[in-house]
Amino acid sequence: MDDVADSPELHVSVRFFAAAQAAAGVDESLVTLPAGATVACVVSELSCRSDELAQVLRRCSYLCDGVAVRDLEMKLHSGQTVDVLPPFAGG
After folding, report:
1. Which long-range contacts (CB under 8 A, 24 or more apart) does 69-74 make?
2. Residue 1 half-sphere exposure, CB side, CA atoms within 13 Å?
3. Would you state the pLDDT for residue 90?
4. Among 8, 33, 36, 69, which has the highest number of CB atoms less than 10 A from its own CB?
């Protein structure tokens, strides 16, 4: 029996970059969510932390384990990493 697979919750590491890091006040955070949670659930949980962070998250894109997230309803698994990437300006 795999206790991790049977767990009623999952733990996802979230890494913040640039403006998202400034709004979050940290560069990384561990988020605990119910089993079956999605990337959208992570965004919702993080948005509750502050109005400033919620505003930044609306403009961000996301990576999950280094792969661009195209569908925020993508289900997550414990141990995954979600990167929060605000829009970048470049020259």
Report:
1. 69/39, 71/39, 72/38, 72/39, 72/40, 72/43, 73/38, 73/39, 73/40, 74/38, 74/39
2. 3
3. 56
4. 69
